[in-house]
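Lab notebook, bench 4. The sequencing result for the construct came back, and we need a structural model before the next group meeting so we can plan mutations. Quick request posted to the team channel:

Model the 3D structure of this chain.
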Amino acid sequence: MVASNPLFSSWSLKKFNATVINDVWPEVAFFSLVATMVSLVTKLTSHSLAVPNSLLTVLGTVLGLVISFRTSTAYERYQEGRKMWTNITIASRNIAQIIWIHVPFERVDKDKNPMTTVHSVIEKKTIVNLVQAFSVSVKHFLREEPGVYYQDLYPLVCFLPRYADPKGPATPADMLPLWQASEDDKFPLPTVPLSTPERDFSDSGNTLHDISVSSKEGGISELGASKLRRTKTFDPEAALADVQSHRPLGPARSPPETSFFDYFPIFRIFAWLFSTCSRRLRGKAHSKKRRGPLPESNVPLEITIYLSAYLQYLLRNNWLTPALASGLMNNIASLQDTMTNLDRIGSTPLPFAYQAHLRMSLWLYLFFLPFQVVSSFGYLTIPGTAFAAFLLSGFLEIGQEIENPFGYDGNDLDVDGFCLAIQRELHEITAHTTPDPTQFIFSSWNQPLAPADRRSADVLMENSDAAYTHSEHGDSEPGMMSIHRVLLKNWRDVDRITRQ
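Done. Here's the predicted structure in token form:
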């Protein structure tokens, strides 16, 4: 996502691609040629192509309002998408904090079986990793990348059960939806459990090279592989677990390759004609062999089901109070609601009839614009028409680009950055050891009553009965009244100091 001011910053190819110049220049060029033709014929021949401009003001105002409404509607979807990702961040924090802090480390289940601290840490950190996997799965879900076999998602969910009966036979008929939608005939799932390979962590470059090679063999795009090769400076997937997969994992970010038609969209009509003729030449018999789309599984929904099952597991063993259980359930429901709203934004485009009618109306307006202004502008009709085409077509193209802000366009939301921010925050939460407050409150580093009293907490506790007496501070009453007077003095001092 490019968000810096283009007027006061250095330009780059990325920033240029984030503009809509590549999309609107064919229209600008076409209507400029029309304006050139009208100007030359009117000025150099005896024929005048000028027409009355009575409708110019009315139609221009109406068209401008409609385009403004189109752009505003798209920007509202853009803003709503950002708010939804903020809700995912907040809910992920809350779930991680409740699990990590409020679920006890040393506990005994209903069958009187003790659970050690190591078991509790492994269990809770695993569930927190599932919370992280939710945001990553939502990212791939919104980008229409089905399945779980991605470098940033598979290490977080690979331990989840794959079959309805883990102790029974491993048959495709018993495979759970989370995995069924991701399997194909090219890479069949082995019946034996996958083992974790030994890895030499001293040489991370070899691992990255192996990933790039396996990506090529698995049919992953060259762009995704090239993105992995630049990981000497930035490789967020290196912070994830190193697990074995029976098939090559897709890249975490796989933007579409830039083609010739992205810079010259006017030639797409020839590509369409060529593909249509090719299908007709191949005949119907060949087209019948096509396979339908792979059945999809809602991976974010599957992850929230496991989170809800963990909540039920805590309640069954009385390891969570009802109030905290209610908060945990509400945050899991918030994740589900947010995912549904994001899907609504991404899968509900503006109706085709509205877009087509607006585009054709704009083209007709720009086509007849030179005929209406040539009598007043003369040769200035050419740059005037070009500017009008650039302005109106640009706003219309911007609205079309940002109405689905979850892809790989330069103006889309930085969804990858949101997921990495959630990952950092969850790891920061689990880095805390949740110590007893008495271990850090009554220390020499703590001056709780400053600035009125700058003694540390351990000094105040050395003789707590005589910490505040009338002899020390001139108070007539010892005890809490003296402490309240110190707190009042704190307020006066802070109010005076901060207002200077």
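Residues 194-231, 283-295, 470-479 have pLDDT under 50 and may be disordered.
Will bring this to the meeting.
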